[in-house]
């Protein structure tokens, strides 16, 4: 692993300012850490503090990140607080009913101007010194303003706004890069796979039951990569849960356990896997009975109903994941190289009767809630990987991502390149894109280097 400095220390002397943090940062060359063609990954990418800080600069500061769902905002002043990487963010509806996002940090001394998780307000007021900002981010009130110099202008000290906010079928994403490619272009063929969850109902989707949050000891990439690529673990890691859910108590039949399926591999790092067995649907019976599958086939197409709409898994790079039949959508918020905070919502179709929505909610909680029978298995695996990855010898042994090498192809049925269901193809794609971004200067870096 080699290092490069992002700019000369003397570059700022002429303009009379201190170097910015990103200009002083040492950027690590990750070329030797990810061999996506050979299917080998250096496990230091989960533990190295320098790499983690570089991720904040080059992954999370330049990627489209999930913020919230549009159903969380009904009227001007509704807000929700979240994170983009480790940056605190306010998402709110302004007076014109547009969704906007701001850095949740007062321009005076840096305290959060909104400490509530969600709610409604007319102003965001810092509890430290009382600076107040309106829904458009403008600074409106400064106690003892007359003590400031004559050239102090409130117009210069509004909240820092995230320059790009975009919505895809109810999902709100944001990007700090002023010249970021449009969200739909960044999603590419992944939109087809997302639509199998987001576009079943002409009325759209909504989230119910609030936001569930829990902390896991593990690097955020372990979770994001698994949801992109890993059906392989299901029959082993979730064996006891599958037994509980099966009608016989013995687990799924052999043909279901060894289900055929496909895995989508995106050049943008996204991934989705899905069985194509007609009985590969683990959600609540009430939800099945609600759906008119003939109408769904007419709306989405046979291939989508038989594939991405089944009990699959998916990740939108870098940190948004979902489970299409369970209606679980979640973000893996990074909290250091060894820790992540999981935020999860329950997504339902708007036109579902209340009793069907409730059945989906309860099923989701039993399976992929904070103490769900599947969720607990996953968290244990990620924590186990992380717990031993700091060992000297352990950290020098590469990890194998070779399953399905060479199987990626355009299959003529599903958009983009796909592999077999049991494959590491989307995982290799995830880390290939990760490495590309990690080695390229981002929008905020000195472009002359």
TrEMBL record:
Tell me, what is one Gene Ontology molecular-function annotation carried by this entry? dioxygenase activity
Q: Sorted alphabetically, which Pfam families does this protein's record hold?
A: Rieske (PF00355), Ring_hydroxyl_A (PF00848)
Q: Highest taxon of the source?
A: Bacteria
Instruction: Indicate the segments forming the Rieske domain, all copies.
Output: 65-162
What does the UniProt keyword field contain? 2Fe-2S, Aromatic hydrocarbons catabolism, Dioxygenase, Iron, Iron-sulfur, Metal-binding, NAD, Oxidoreductase
Q: Which family does it belong to?
A: Belongs to the bacterial ring-hydroxylating dioxygenase alpha subunit family.
Name of this protein: Aromatic ring-hydroxylating dioxygenase subunit alpha
């Amino acid at each position: 692993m080699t290092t490069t400095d992002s700019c000369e220390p003397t570059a700022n002397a002429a303009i009379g300012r201190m170097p910015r943090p990103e200009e002083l940062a040492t950027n690590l060359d990750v070329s030797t850490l990810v061999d996506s063609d050979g299917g080998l990954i250096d496990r230091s990418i989960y533990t190295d503090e320098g790499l983690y800080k570089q991720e904040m600069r080059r992954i999370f500061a330049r990627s489209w990140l999930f913020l919230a769902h549009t159903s969380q905002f009904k009227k001007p002043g509704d807000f929700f607080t979240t994170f983009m990487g480790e940056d605190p963010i306010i998402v709110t509806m302004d007076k014109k009913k547009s969704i906007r996002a701001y850095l949740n940090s007062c321009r005076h001394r840096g305290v959060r101007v909104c400490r509530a998780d969600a709610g409604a307000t007319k102003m965001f007021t810092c509890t430290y010194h009382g600076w107040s900002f309106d829904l458009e981010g403008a600074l409106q009130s400064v106690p003892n303003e007359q003590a400031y110099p004559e050239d102090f202008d409130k117009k210069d000290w509004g909240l820092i706004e995230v320059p790009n906010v975009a919505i895809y079928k109810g999902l709100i994403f944001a990007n700090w890069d002023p010249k970021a490619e449009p969200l739909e272009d960044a999603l590419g063929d992944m939109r087809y796979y997302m639509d199998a969850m987001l576009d079943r109902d002409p009325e759209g989707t909504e989230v119910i039951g609030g936001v569930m949050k829990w902390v896991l000891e593990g690097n955020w990439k372990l979770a994001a990569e698994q949801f992109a690529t890993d059906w392989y673990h299901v029959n082993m890691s979730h064996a006891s849960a599958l037994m509980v859910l099966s009608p016989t108590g013995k687990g799924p039949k052999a043909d279901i356990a060894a289900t055929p399926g496909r895995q989508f591999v995106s050049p943008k790092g996204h991934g989705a896997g899905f069985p194509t067995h007609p009985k590969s649907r683990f959600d609540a019976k009430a939800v099945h009975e609600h759906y008119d599958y003939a109408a769904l086939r007419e709306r989405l197409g046979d291939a989508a109903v038989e594939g991405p709409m089944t009990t699959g898994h998916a990740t939108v790079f870098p940190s948004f994941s979902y489970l299409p039949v369970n209606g679980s959508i979640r973000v893996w918020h990074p909290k250091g190289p060894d820790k992540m905070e999981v935020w999860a919502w329950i997504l339902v179709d708007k036109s579902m009767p209340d009793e069907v929505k409730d059945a989906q909610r309860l099923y989701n909680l039993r399976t992929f809630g904070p103490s769900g029978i599947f969720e607990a298995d996953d968290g244990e695996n990620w924590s186990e990987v992380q717990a031993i990855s700091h060992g000297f010898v352990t950290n020098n042994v590469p990890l194998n991502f070779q399953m399905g090498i060479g199987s990626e192809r355009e299959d003529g049925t599903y958009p983009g390149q796909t592999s077999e269901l049991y494959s590491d193809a989307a995982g290799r794609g995830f880390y290939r894109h990760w490495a590309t971004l990690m080695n390229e200067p981002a929008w905020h870096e000195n472009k002359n280097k």
